[in-house]
Amino acid sequence: xxxxxxxxxxxxxxxxxxxxxxxxxxxxxxxxxxxxxxxxxxxxxxxxxxxxxxxxxxxxxxxxxxxxxxxxxxxxxxxxxxxxxxxxxxxxxxxxxxxxxxxxxxxxxxxxxxxxxxxxxxxxxxxxxxxxxxxxxxxxxxxxxxxxxxxxxxxxxxxxxxxxxxxxxxxxxxxxxxxxxxxxxxxxxxxxxxxxxxxxxxxxxxxxxxxxxxxxxxxxxxxxxxxxxxxxxxxxxxxxxxxxxxxxxxxxxxxxxxxxxxxxxxxxxxxxxxxxxxxxxxxxxxxxxxxxxxxxxxxxxxxxxxxxxxxxxxxxxxxxxxxxxxxxxxxxxxxxxxxxxxxxxxxxxxxxxxxxxxxxxxxxxxxxxxxxxxxxxxxxxxxxxxxxxxxxxxxxxxxxxxxxxxxxxxxxxxxxxxxxxxxxxxxxxxxxxxxxxxxx
Length: 440
Fold this sequence. Notes:
Structural class: mainly alpha
Number of domains: 2
Number of strands: 3
Mean pLDDT: 76
Strand content: under 5%
Order of helices and strands: HEEHHHHHHHEHHHHH
Radius of gyration: 26 Å
Number of helices: 13
């Protein structure tokens, strides 16, 4: 199965690259503006990777720096590596060493559980509702506001759900490792091998979690920009309605209804801002910073069409099965318990089928988000064309300022929707890559 099979001729990605037969030719003349800022690594005595410093107390983090920063700065990984060092140094491991290794895994589990709960809070969030008498108000702009907000909230929930799925897979693997650590192992070699597996699993999990949270944070920023646009439009609508009320054209309860909706929108803004700060704090934690550090998260990369075009599911699933951490853990578990023969074959086949299904679901989700992005790009092009025509008609006096402003607002909303869909697709791509690399 190839990604190119679902492309629609003449439609553009967020990069502005045509899909379909002309895509290859167009790319020869297009420079991809991938907005990833390079990071400068400071050579500290501890050898830790650091973000770019904007000033003495402000740190700028780039998306491309996440891997190195997690590996070198994360405190939990540092503790785990100290335990591994002692195991290799002493050769004969004590129960205390194994208990310490279990403790590090439990701490990682505790952190992942916290992040998962934060995702639950995002998932249950609702967009501000429409005024209950919106039909009576009869304003299409208000209906469009609600529609745009709902679409962006769906994307935020989608990214949060994708993050949660990734966390649940990691939690299951770590739980299995906790059960296996010290169970049936004999000698330093087994214990060292298990500890190295534990550290690699924790490292991969933390890197992927940081990437997902980075995306969630920016998705929240997009939602907040849409809420700001909605607030401005609703306030303008409220002023207009008050003027109409003074003229005796509408009832006061319609104004009160819109005022209530405006208060709900502002409450949603505050809730989203608070949740965004929690997400930022979790990113700081993973990257080795404290709550006191002023950390700023930089731009995300745009979706790379080359990656999407070149996906070969059959080849990728083979790699995912070969790298799957849960399969490696299962094999180690069966080794420790000296389970061989048909029982071993059956248990490994069950786990392999589970891995395949999880990877297939991720691939299907990626395809779905890709299709959604293509559709939103097409809608944006359509509304831009309408705006261009409307500007010409406005100059000729054929339409009002309000009609022109309405189209301008629609363009802004569609631009945010495209950005939001791009982030949702990026999240699915990152999880696909992570699963292919072993996070299954």
